[in-house]
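User: I'm designing a mutation panel for K+/H+ antiporter subunit F and want to avoid disrupting the core. Could you give me a predicted structure to guide residue selection? Please restate the sequence first so the numbering is unambiguous.

Assistant: Good idea. Sequence first, for numbering, then the predicted structure tokens:
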Amino acid sequence: MLTVALYITLALVIMALLFNLYRLMVGPDLPDRVLALDTMYINAIALIVLLGLWLNTKTYFESALLIAMLGFISTVAVCKYILRGDIIE
């Protein structure tokens, strides 16, 4: 039963990644593209967690936390660059 749920979830997360990739390529504005990229790394974290559940290991969860921290910092840096034109003041 868990494998069926993992397959369904995997298909839905991959579909969400494809929709985000479309928004990243076609997005009308720069903030839309930043938001699509932000959502793509969140979906990548979901894929890593699903892989950890499928393989029944804990190391993938630690890597997902590391990617989450790096993704948050990069999103803040890109938004600061869009607003001010400079990251470091």
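For picking mutation sites, this is relevant: The mean pLDDT is 90. The domain at 2-83 is CATH 1.10.287 (Helix Hairpins).
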